[in-house]
Amino acid sequence: MTAPAVLVIGSCLILGSLGKPSFPEQEKDPKFWNTWAQQTLKNALSLQTLNQNKAKNLIFFLGDGMGVPTVTAARILKGQLSGQSGEETQLEMDKFPFVSLAKTYNTNAQVADSAGTATAFLCGVKANEGTVGVSAAAVRSQCNTTKGNEVTSILKWAKDAGKSVGLVTTTRVNHATPSASYAHSVDRDWLSDSAMPAEAVQDGCKDIARQLFENIPDINVIMGGGRKYMFPKNQVDVEYPDTAKYSGTRKDGRNLVGEWTEKMEDKNGHYVWNKKQLLSLNPNNVDYLLGLFEPEDMTYDLERNPETDPSLTEMVEVAIKILKKNPNGFYLLVEGGRIDHGHHEGKAKQALYEAVEMDRAISRAGLMTSIHDTLTIVTADHSHVFNFGGYTHRGNTIFGLAPAVSDVDQKPFTAILYGNGPGYKLVNGGRENVSAIDYREYIYVSGEENNYQAQAAVPLSMETHGGEDVAVFAKGPMAHLLHGVHEQNYIPHVMAYASCIGQNRQHCAGHNQGSRLRPALPSIAALFTLIRLLF
Description:
By secondary structure, the protein is of the alpha/beta class. Helices cover about 25% and strands about 15% of the residues. It folds into 2 domains: about 50-385 and about 475-500, Alkaline Phosphatase, subunit A; about 395-465, no CATH class. The strands form 4 sheets. A 10-stranded mixed beta sheet has the order 5-6-4-3-7-1-8-16-2-17, sandwiched between helices. Strands 10-11-14 form a 3-stranded mixed beta sheet. Strands 9-15 form a two-stranded antiparallel ribbon. Helix 2 (about 70-80) packs across helix 12, helix 10 (about 310-325) runs parallel beside helix 12 and helix 11 runs antiparallel to helix 12. Mean pLDDT is about 90; it is low at about 1-20, about 435-450 and about 520-535.
């Protein structure tokens, strides 16, 4: 086996001597499957009584790049991490009673980017790739097409309705997904003023970091990475003072964190930049929280320092404790943003562990809220050209080899493959041999190889997004409205309808939190009938 090889013989997974898969003995009995199916049927029948309560709280989990193959692979990994074969495991999102599909294309792109999709699922309007918080009338990188084309998000609708609001991400807080909550930018890459063309600044366009604090100034909870975009150029970072690339980037000399801290001094506002500071806070005494834990994106969960960096689950728990104090309820956006980054880099292990961590955060949020008054949605902005196959046996480690070599080049191959990306490698004019002493009795021990790049069919420096529909999981009030196949921009309209914010509020008159909503559509139909009779 060569030094770079990451496929190593191990003993964590044992296949039979003839390569036959092992599985629980009870699965041989038809009664096992029939009983399971009958219980599932009873659960499904209970859904005939729909939850039509008014949603006091809204929680939106966004797995960036978490296409259906990623969901399935993460499910298997979750099970294998707890000593199971994995396939039969349930993710928290698997337990949600309603599932639909969302079409992810941007107005100008068949295969979408995260900015245009974020505008769709947060602002309710499809948009061009690379733009956030503006309609499709805006043209990427053309500052003068911003004004008049701004669209607002469900975060703002919730804030205007008196709810507490927050956003939590494992990327930069001014990255594509979170920025669509508050910014109106014709270029997702205008992270600070130093990233903008001089003419755009002169024409009055604002960088995204600045908009975070100015457009909706009273966002209650902001947590993620992105410190360097908030501080003056060359100001050293508090955590990495000797690393120049992490120093401040702002050419305007503004200290946005300092300005925020001063403004929130008498409003129970707190700024934190490490886990110790975050967990030392008493949420009962915090009304506003700004947590910036890295200069850029937060580290992958596999590489996270558990002493200094909070996990996504820990951030979500603190966020909900702060937000739920509001008697009017809250809205919270949670992004597992580095699932996407792992895939782009061809690092399936990083991506899947990020997805498993987001599943933990979904579980924690579920324990802290109630389906009676909280609508929770889990979805993705887009997919990736990631998949796994090769007729692997039951319980095959998700990072392992297919059970047979290629019948063309007689070399083994990993079950996980990418359609394109940095994992494409040629050795002596042929496909790289990923190496295993005996491909029928191997284990992919990836203990130290978190960054192994799975093989790809087409060479690219960065793997690309996929264009297929993504799953939308929903539970809580009005979750049944997410069914079938819909445009991605439909999602925030459902959330707004369920919580009586934004448009379509006529069905909410006289209803308190938790009370049943009466659809307004029948009255509209009656109106049209009357018009036809009169004319």
